[in-house]
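Try this one yourself first.
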């Protein structure tokens, strides 16, 4: 007993030829390969971003330690200025404060240029 549509021509259940099916398969393979290349590109980009983030975090940690040391230096300078301000040498204290501000701006400018 032969069914209609399942004859000798390699036809599917609805009478379509395999050539249309293989064209769809080829297109799917092509699209899959294109997607694979895009995923690979995105993966390599994300890895590069990860390396850049690690580098930037290291740089930020170094800057943080430099700012901490600068803060300590400025704190000690301010303590010395407070000791000087308790005396009667107000003119000397004014010069010291101006010198401290000058040094602070020079350090800030040097860090800003990096």
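Now uncover the answer:
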């Amino acid at each position: 007993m032969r069914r209609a549509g399942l004859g000798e021509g390699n036809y599917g259940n609805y009478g379509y030829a395999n050539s249309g099916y293989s064209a769809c398969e080829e297109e799917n393979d092509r699209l899959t390969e294109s997607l694979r290349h895009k995923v690979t590109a995105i993966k390599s980009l994300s890895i590069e971003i990860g390396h850049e983030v690690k580098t930037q975090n290291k740089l930020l940690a170094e800057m943080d330690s430099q700012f901490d040391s600068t803060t300590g230096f400025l704190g000690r300078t301010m303590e010395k200025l407070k000791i000087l301000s308790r005396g009667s040498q107000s003119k000397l204290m004014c010069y010291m404060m101006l010198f401290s501000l000058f040094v602070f701006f020079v350090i800030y400018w040097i860090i800003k240029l990096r």
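Discussion: The two ends are 88 Å apart (CA to CA). Confidence is low (pLDDT under 50) at residues 1-13.
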